[in-house]
Amino acid sequence: MVGRQPPDPFVTTVGQRLADLLQSVPATRLCVALSGGPDSVALLAALAALPAPLPLRALHVNHHLQAQADEWMRGCRRLARSLGVPLSVRHVAVPVGRGLSPEAAAREARRAAFLAALRPGEALLTAHHLDDQFETLLLMLMRGSGVHGLAAMPAAQRLGRGWLLRPLLDEPRAALAAFVARRGLPHVLDESNADERFDRNFLRRRVTPLLGSRWPGAARAVARSARLLGEARGLLDELAEADLVALTGHAGAGAPRSLELAALATLSSARQRNALRAWLRGLGVRPPDEVHLERIRLELPRARRDAQPVVRWPDGEVRRFRGRLYFLTPASGRSRAHEAGGLWDGAPWDWSPWDWTRARPYSLGPGRGALRLVADPAGTISRQALPARLQVRTRIPGAKVALRQGGARRTVKELLRAAGVLPWERDRLPVLCDGTQIVAVGDLFVAAPYLAAGPGRRGRLRLEWLEAPELRGPGVAVGQGRSGPD
Predict the structure, then answer these.
(1) What does each C-alpha distance from 338 to 47, 316, 330 come to in angstroms?
(2) 347: left (phi over 0), alpha (psi -120 to 50) or beta
(3) What whole-number distance in Å separates Cα of residue 105 and Cα of residue 462?
(4) CA angle, corner 127, sides to 193 and 189, nearest 5?
(5) What torsion, rounded to 10 degrees, do the Cα atoms 193, 198, 200, 205 define?
(6) Is the pLDDT of residue 348 over 50?
(7) Strand order across the beta sheet in which 324-328 lies
(8) Helix 130-142 / helix 218-248 crossing angle, nearest 10 deg
(9) CA distance 371 to 397
């Protein structure tokens, strides 16, 4: 009788490493990023050979950058089918001409696809290995990165609604290739990996072999340094979190939307930089380079009191208002508004009419939320005063409105300034109109002719702004007819 064949040592190693990672990550499903190359093929085949700890699937991203892209996709389908693993495919368009290298543009498009495809609680597994870690740390050194960059790739981290796991970081590329050869697994070889114009390829083909010939243990030594730097990164993150809580009183999930400059100034320069980076990362954005970070730290506080200073970099901008720092995405500020739909063409912008009686929310576009009118006994808007269709506009220069019957008419600009609405939001607020008459400005003010009056509670409406952007700094309350200093 033939004895039972022992398990492949590579499969055993992958299983042990995955079990270790799952002890600290409460994942409910596993998803392998499958490119079709030998590394990801090795990972998927090893996981498919293990007793399933969790439901397993594969995900292939088709960048359509090479002529063979569709054939690689079909190869991934055949491999997944042969292993009994369900496969999903995401097609992406890689943007060009945005100041990104082809590598970086493809990486960003792939990451966006992963974020969109990842299910709640699911762990995305990638086949990054020991040699990848070696190359990554060298790349970060050449870019002058700090501790966060030099810590290279962590074995486990949050990713969107789930996690990102790298169970092969201690395994050399050769171990993955040997497993693929032993099993005779079909895979593809991307010819662009031989193009030394790409930094990583240059390191892989020229630099790391030379270093390895002099120091045979170079890859493991560098990976050990990355782990130690990862511990230092964790300590810096803990310090930044404690500083941000002390500065803002904000604890828990998510980062505070703004920072108080006076409180930030109580920290040392190094802790200010550390806190600013952590604040921006908490908002889901990559911190700027050292030059732009110093401009945020030094230029914005020192600008004139009546100025509206701003520091921009490709991923966003930071502005100062009333002693606080605010982060805006690239499409949030006036200089980027053309990307959000042309609201800054220098004239009032008329959106399509809103038939509010159908009880459908009125979308204001990406990142701006939606409006809806709902019945509410405590609502401030009179249903009888409203026409069946409203117009939604913005930017009505010089427009005036009275907020009380018989009250003085004041400019919308004056009311918004007095209410502490952030300057870059004042000209982007949705203005509801009845023909040429203003009904309401966002969900902030209602014009006097449309106010619900009398003791009766029937026929009252409330205007809701769903998923509204941040309009005011903390501690600023807005009420009907509120006034105050600029």
Answers:
(1) 47, 15, 10
(2) beta
(3) 45
(4) 30
(5) 60
(6) no
(7) 258-260, 324-328, 316-321, 310-313
(8) 60
(9) 22
User: What is d(CA 429, CA 414) in angstroms, rounded to the nearest whole number?
Assistant: 14
Q: What is the C-alpha separation between 182 and 247, in angstroms, rounded?
A: 57
Q: What is the pTM of this model?
A: 0.73
- CA-to-CA distance for 241 and 339, rounded, in angstroms? 33
Inter-residue contact 173 to 134 (CB < 8 Å)? no
Q: How confident is the model at residue 476 (pLDDT cuts 50, 70, 90)?
A: low
Burial class (CB in 10 A: 0-12, 13-18, 19+), 207: middle
Q: Which residues share a beta bridge with 374?
A: 462
Longest dimension (CA), the chain: 101
In the three-class reduction of DSSP (H, G, I as helix; E, B as strand; rest coil), residue 366 is classed as coil
pLDDT band, residue 485 (cuts 50/70/90) = very low
CATH topology of domain 237-330: Chorismate Mutase Domain, subunit A (1.20.59)
Provide the residue type at 470 as one letter. Answer: E
Cα angle value 446/452/454 (rounded, 5°) = 145
- pLDDT exceeds 90 at position 17: yes
DSSP state of 390: B
SS3 state at 186? coil
Cβ–Cβ under 8 Å, residues 122 and 162: yes
Structural element, H or E, at residue 296: none
Q: What angle do CA 476, 481, 486 make, to 5 degrees?
A: 50
Please give the average per-residue pLDDT across 353-367, as a whole number.
85
Is pLDDT above 60 for 481? no
Q: Can you say whether the dihedral through the CA atoms of 236, 240, 246, 249 is positive or negative?
A: negative
Topology (CATH level 3) of domain 9-214: Rossmann fold (3.40.50)
> What 3-state DSSP class applies to 311?
strand
Per the CB < 8 A criterion, the answer to whether 191 and 150 are in contact is no
With contact defined as beta carbons under 8 Å apart, do 304 and 316 qualify?
no
Q: Which two tokens stand for residue 329?
A: 């995405």
Confidence band of 331 (pLDDT split at 50, 70, 90): low
pLDDT of res. 34: 97
Report domain extents, the chain.
9-214, 237-330, 349-466
